[in-house]
Write a structure and sequence with these properties.
Elements lengths: L19 H24 L8 H11 L17 H8 L2 H12 L3 H24 L4 H28 L6 H19 L3 H36 L1
Length: 225
């Protein structure tokens, strides 16, 4: 037996000699990788604050899709297409203002807030690019504000009764949903910019029509009473 072997070396087996130093190095590398992975997973929710449970639940229920977002590279907030895309959020401002002028302050204000948050989300999306927690936070808040406005409009339609909801509200609402669905088919580039821009325009118009119908419905009830 050779007693002069390097103690850092050698286990002799079916696969030949094994370098113990290499094993230790591999173990250390794997350990550091696990630490880095855990740190990365922790940082994924650093920006969410009190919304952390909501963000985690959305990710859990959707397998991570719910807070993912389209890759709009090479467009930025400064490119012509990026500017045009962001400008479509102004439709919410116009619609909300028009409703406020007619006395529909609730849906009008919710529409305004949804438009502001939508602008913030899409500006962040264009500015930061993929896999940024700033954008995921903006997207989550966009869900909350847009969802609140949609629930308000939906409650108005329920109060009016299905038979009393103007047909154009249903038509433009259906077109809006179609545009939103189409933009999810290919979540990148010009396709997404085009169809999501139309979603902004038509959904804002639908919200305005629903709010206007609610005002007319209340005015009609006031006259009757």
């Amino acid at each position: 037996v050779d007693v002069d072997l390097d103690p850092a070396l050698v286990l002799e087996g079916e696969l030949g000699p094994v370098d113990l130093e290499e094993i230790d190095t591999a173990k250390l590398s794997a350990f550091q990788s696990d630490i880095a992975k855990g740190s990365t997973e922790q940082r994924q929710y650093d920006y969410f604050g009190p919304l952390l449970p909501v963000a985690e639940k959305v990710d859990q229920l959707t397998g991570g899709w719910g807070l993912s977002y389209a890759d709009l590279h090479p467009e930025t907030p400064q490119t012509p297409l990026g500017v045009a895309f962001l400008a479509t959020n102004a439709c919410y401002a116009f619609g909300g203002l028009a409703l406020g002028v007619q006395g529909e302050w609730t849906l009008g204000l919710l529409t305004e807030v949804a438009g502001i948050v939508s602008f913030w989300y899409h500006f962040s999306q264009l500015n930061f690019g993929q896999d940024r927690q700033e954008v995921r936070l903006a997207l989550l808040i966009d869900y909350l504000t847009a969802g609140t406005a949609l629930l308000c409009g939906g409650s108005y339609m329920v109060q009016m009764g299905v038979d009393s909801v103007p047909f154009d509200c249903l038509v433009w609402g259906g077109i809006s949903v179609l545009c939103l669905t189409l933009c999810w088919v290919r979540e990148f580039g010009y396709w997404y910019l085009f169809w999501h821009s139309l979603w902004h325009i038509f959904s804002a118009y639908t919200g305005y029509l629903v709010g206007q119908a609610n005002v007319l419905n209340h005015n009609g009830m006031s006259i009757i009473s």
